[in-house]
Model the fold of this input.
Amino acid sequence: MRKFLLYVALVLWWNLALAGEKEVTSQWRATEIKVDGAGDEWAESIFYLEKEKLAFGVKNDSSALYLLLKFDRSLKRQAISHGCTIWFDPTGKNKKTFGVRYPIGMMNFGGRAMPESRPAFEDESAPTPFGGAMLREIEVLGPEKDERNRFVAGSSFGIEAAAFNAPDELVCEVKIPLHGVPGRPYAINADTGESLSLGFELGEFEREKIRDRMGRESGKPGGGFPRGARPPGGFRGGTPPGAREPMPSGFKVWQRLQLASFAAQISNAAGNLDGIFVTLTKHEMPLREALQQIVSQTKLQIVYSDALVQDVKVHCACEEVTARTALAELLRSTALVYEITADGQIVIVKRDFKP
Done:
């Protein structure tokens, strides 16, 4: 009986925890997203966490998830100083399964943290001693326990990241593969149309750690000013003249993320796909032949270059399903990046990697 009551209590606790989560829905990447930190492609795709004061956007295609993070002035200083980690859990249980830390943060990068308060006249958009190099690197946490690797952002390992340091905000863009491939194993491990847990963790301003580091650098225990001494300028305590408010505390927040599905993105111009059923022969065939079998009875057109699809083969294993479902399943199994136009064309844009 006691075990049963404990089980019921755990189930109720878990349901309440899920009910308290916010759910966001990713948008399908209908146009090219350039990972450059400018954020020009995100005008109508921004979510805002009011308590944490964090703005973010999320999109996906068949092969990758795209994230935009906007840190306001107070969060920006904290992100540059202590870093921000984006966590993913494909099981939806809010576990730190796989994480990407960007920016890494000066405390993690090896530099000195930004002070808790900075003079109002100081230009925060100016480059810092470690800032430029720090924003060019990214840290991957997991998927194995205690696994941690650092790479150049945008290198061939698969994850891309870039940032733009504006006077009043820091804008970061990150692209993360949905699935790993040989040579590029770091990925979220989730399929389009699925839901997962998405977490944001902003580093805490740890005064003791900073004092210890300053002490080691200066050769004095704990760093800072000698006992009884006053800081330069003669102020007795509190916030010095001209300084801003102290940094906010760090946070960790989880969202339930619903990935967009390709099947849901086919335009109404090709709506007759739902009324047409196709059967794909269960054997390996060239992608071009498989696509042609699907669209031969529809008004849908496929535009691609031979250089993109000539050496791509797929294993067709569909029973009789709608053309819409068959098309989505087929292209999801490839590394092709494609777009849907308003007039019902599927445009094969590029291939992410060689098969």
Notes: Confidence is low (pLDDT under 50) at residues 3-20, 111-130, 222-242, 266-271. The longest strand covers residues 64-71. The helical segments are 2-20, 73-82, 106-109, 131-134, 207-218, 287-295, 306-309, 323-332. Residues 262-351 form a domain with the Phage tail protein beta-alpha-beta fold fold (CATH 3.55.50.30).
